[in-house]
Please model this.
Amino acid sequence: MALDFNALVRQIIRVGTLRVQHSDGSTEIFGDGSGAPVAIRFTDDKAAGEIAADPPLKLGEVYMDGRMVFDEGDIYSFLALVKSNTVNEVFSPLMMARLFWRMGLSQALARLPVNHNRQNVSHHYDLSAKLFDLFLDPDWQYSCAYFEPADISLEEAQLAKKRHIAAKLLMEQGQKVLEIGSGWGGMAMYLAEAYNADVTGITLSHEQLDVSRRRAEKRNLADRVRFELQDYRYYKDKTFDRIVSVGMFEHVGVANYAGFFRKCAELLDKDGVMVLHSIGRPKPSYATNPFIEKYIFPGGYIPSVGEVAPHVEKAGLLVKDVEILSIHYAETLKAWRERFLARKEEAVALYDERFVRMWEFYLAGSEIAFRYDELFVFQMQIARQQYAVPNNRTYIAEREAGLKTFEASRAPLEKVEF
Model:
């Protein structure tokens, strides 16, 4: 099977330097000898063959299990070397069969009338809050930051993201806001303090709910910032001036888009405005990366804008603005990966070495996807009626300037205690 792996790599690596040592001691060098070398070593005689048979799943699993180790470089530099050389995907008949099987299975499962939302969310977001504290900014923003200008820090970029979204929401003082997928509460608290808003945040994560409530209590916001363990599908009996959803839509599932936007139309006031912030892709994929599906985000799906917009319109809503943020998430993931690895020993103490390698592979692979596979983040501004939003975009910069004034006098964020 080593020969199959070598043959596969030989088709891909033309530029750069990759050295591969198999468990029997045999070594082969691929590429033209340029650039910083990457050297991998397999610790058993089956690992290379497993990767060759099913790269999308087995590469991550073999690395996670410690069966592929790096003598030079790391998993990110290896993935970057592969992707920078990949002009056309290389598929064997077995790989093609697995691809079509996964696509069919994914589409079938997405349409089953079984609600796995809470189970799927719990798989990722109910990991120890201490894990996320290792690499997130002080406001625990676990979604794409906004690096504008490009050279700002992660903390500044996450604040810029909240400011940018708040400006697009066209908030007014004292309005009622619903946040679908409220995370650890940072956006809700920002809007409450900036606009004296009454904010309801809903989540399916017990861990996030606990942290959010404690944070709001600590900032004396519990009277106007409420967090609830609630599925958006069953929320009713209220309407809101504004709806915001950041980094949650990827978990809705393509079969549920129509219901999601019908519910938003039901909950949004007739003069209301909504901002949806989500990862997107250039075209439909019909299936999620199998490693991400199995180990990181079960039930997730990254849509194209073209898959989303028709459901907005069918729900009687208007798409008022769409902004594409292309490389911002790559930079966010780079910052997270570097911070996570800088505190690797703490992560090992929380879980174990295998978990840490799994998480490193997730962060590295995700960054690669935004740099090389054309993934992006889109912000879609939605309204119920034509005149809810100005007919130009100058208001965004004007409102951001006002929010910077608010931020300058805002009380510092407190550290979360465990």
